[in-house]
Automatic annotation (TrEMBL):
Lineage: Bacteria, Pseudomonadati, Pseudomonadota, Alphaproteobacteria, Sphingomonadales
GO cellular component, one term: cytoplasmic side of plasma membrane
Protein name: Pilus assembly protein CpaE
Keyword flag Transferase: no
Domain of life: Bacteria
Gene Ontology biological-process annotations: negative regulation of cell division
């Protein structure tokens, strides 16, 4: 995801400005600035708060260097800086605190780099050269061709089947192994675990969007989403449980529209009640990943949700994933389950309590914490299949059903809907 600061181009703006607290650091900075071909007069005395005051009444430069040495709350002040900075500003912070956590939080907030005092000419030269390269290498420069945006909604047939675990793992795979910029939207506004699985604070992005849909635009997305890594950002909430969800769903549609513009992939962790209350959430979703388990209740609700999807979201292609598989302990057999839903289970994921515990302890997604485990193999295959929908050849799931699978041996015909028997049964009146 692009940060609140690092988007756009230099355009006609001033190339550089700095706000530094002490003269010794300014003495090191000015010669480097002259070497870069910029005006040394743009190196100002004063720290982050001076930068905020100045930029609230003046245009932002392309590259901004700010000193955090006199800031009592650097993260809060950086957020205040984002409010006055124009989109496209690359921010380099300078400070005295050698703290990995602070560095990580600053980078997550959108800062391009953080330099420790005392400053050296070589350190400054490298940082400023890297900042310039942001403008020389726009976001899509690395792409050989245009990719279609692909959205998947992950829905659990029952609570506790592992839909959120799968959603966060898929998002992590898209971002980290498939190198797609990915948005994770956790729509369990009160009890969502997406941010928790990524060891992040949920922030107020989603609640702000619900309360003020008119504010949603590209800049809002950049500032409101929480970045997990360079390619993955999440929007979630932890709303008070005494505050009911009051929305007509407009905000969710607008968020998805902005995600299409800003990301290659969108993963929506979609609770069942949201699916029913806001059916338009699936308007532009390519694949509905339906997570279930081998129980009678899950079989019943899989049938009901598949029927609902057929009537209300016919353009979405359902993918049946049976999670928490335990040989010999299932409530009903796989064969009976498939017979009852009148279609095959597309993927099976084994139950692995040790792996789940390991992920929770590490504060990582299930797949990130267990990369070498056999349990995660099917999750990788699911991700590969969904990514394949947006490949440059424009292949969709519907087209793929007419040729070989994107995975080689998998038959997409079993993915694309109910059997002729089911269609016939649904057309006939019940006796």
């Amino acid at each position: 995801m692009n940060s609140p600061f690092k988007t756009g181009s230099m355009g006609n703006r001033e190339p550089f400005s700095a706000f530094i607290c002490d003269e010794s650091a300014l003495d090191v900075l000015r010669p480097v600035v002259i070497e870069m071909g910029w005006q040394p007069e743009k190196c100002n005395k004063g720290g982050l708060r001076n930068a905020i005051q100045s930029l609230s009444i003046a245009a932002s430069p392309a590259i901004l260097m700010v000193d955090l040495s006199e800031s009592g709350d650097p993260l809060n002040d950086i957020n205040a800086l984002a409010e006055v900075c124009e989109p496209g500003t690359v921010v380099i912070a300078v400070g005295q605190v050698n703290d990995v956590r602070l560095y990580r939080d600053l980078v997550a907030s959108g800062i391009h780099d953080y330099l420790l005092k005392p400053l050296s000419a070589g350190q400054l030269r490298d940082a400023l050269t890297q900042a310039q390269s942001v403008f020389a290498s726009p976001r899509n420069a690395e792409s050989d061709g245009e990719r279609e945006h692909v959205a998947t909604a992950v829905v659990g047939t029952r609570g506790g089947v592992g839909a959120s675990t799968l959603a966060t793992s898929l998002a992590w795979l898209f971002a980290s192994e498939h190198h797609r910029s990915t948005a994770l939207l956790d729509l369990d506004v009160h009890f969502g675990t997406g941010a928790l699985a990524l060891d992040l604070e949920p922030g107020r992005g989603l609640t702000d969007a619900i309360e003020n849909p008119s504010r949603i635009d590209g800049l809002f997305i950049e500032r409101a989403m929480i970045r997990a890594n360079d390619n993955l950002a999440i929007m979630s909430a932890e709303a008070p449980i005494n505050s009911p969800l009051m929305t007509d769903g407009t905000a969710f549609l607008q968020l998805q529209e902005e995600f299409r513009q800003a990301f290659d992939m969108t993963v929506v962790d979609l609770p069942r009640n949201m699916l029913i209350n806001f059916p338009h959430l699936l308007t532009d979703v390519n694949v509905v990943t339906l997570v279930t388990e081998l129980t009678l209740a899950s079989a019943r609700d899989t049938i009901r949700i598949l029927s609902w999807l057929k009537q209300n979201a016919p353009a979405c292609h359902p993918l049946i994933v049976c999670n928490r598989m335990q040989p010999g302990t299932a409530e009903i057999s796989k064969a009976d389950f498939e017979a009852s839903i009148e279609r095959k289970i597309n993927f099976q994921i084994a139950f692995d309590q040790k792996a789940a515990t390991n992920a929770a302890k590490l504060g990582q997604t299930f797949i990130e914490a267990n990369k070498s485990s056999k349990t995660v193999g099917p999750i990788r295959e699911i991700a590969k299949m969904i990514v394949g929908v947006g490949e440059d050849d424009g292949a969709s799931l519907a087209d793929a059903g007419k040729k070989n699978s994107l995975l080689g041996g998998f038959d997409f015909k079993s993915l694309l809907g109910s059997s002729a028997k089911k269609d016939k049964a649904s057309a006939e009146p019940a006796e």
